[in-house]
Design goal:
mainly beta, 2 strands, rod-shaped
């Protein structure tokens, strides 16, 4: 008779919430660290 051996998961996915802000000119979402808005091209403060 074979025994089934189960091991606990040793790896776990750690998700870091991605910080986003919004362009004050057009309202588009801007990814953290971006220098310019991807939609209107205005410089992000």
């Amino acid at each position: 008779m074979k025994r089934s051996t189960q091991f606990p998961a040793t790896t776990s996915a750690v998700s870091v919430p991605e910080e986003r802000s919004f362009c004050r000119y057009c309202g588009a979402q801007i990814q953290y660290g971006a220098a310019f808005c991807p939609k209107c091209g205005k410089k992000v403060d």
